[in-house]
Amino acid sequence: MLAELIIILFIFSVLVFVYYGIIVPSVRLALRYELFEIRDSVRDLHCVDSKEISSDHFDVIHSFVNNAIKTIPFIDICSFIKMAVDMEKDPSLQKHIKKQLARLDECDSKKFQDLTIRTSKCVKKALIVNSGLSLVYILPFVFLFTCIDTMKKAIKILYASESKFDKATKDVRYA
Q1: What does residue 11 show for φ and ψ, rounded to 5 degrees?
Q2: Three-class SS of residue 72?
Q3: In this model, does residue 129 exceed pLDDT 80?
Q4: Is the distance from CB of 115 to CB of 38 less than 8 angstroms?
């Protein structure tokens, strides 16, 4: 029993090393390059086609892409939750973000919207990659809470009248 546990822990440690030592840095680098490409496209769009995108819209998406580049290595489930909690606690931050999002929505440029969506997808990928093996630790709790929720629903069936109870449980009973 102890030997199997040691083997499982060794395999898991090798998996963690390979994932966080090899795979994650490669994916982060690819995401950084993609974000650099998006930032260059935003700059080109602003310089070449300044009628299509105003300075206000340029500033918003440019800061969005730069912030995404800065946070690529750090964004994971915990930091994402902390940012959400901090945003809820700070009304001035909420107001600023709503204003920035409204400015993004004002722009009618299809190219501009595509660059915004591509940036959001890069941030989502970084969130998933950086949280990768953390999900192994979270899944048992998700499973437990799902089971508890299912049990609560099943217990509520007991409050039904006998005819409804019999109809709901006819496939369950082995009589």
Answers
A1: -60, -40
A2: coil
A3: yes
A4: yes
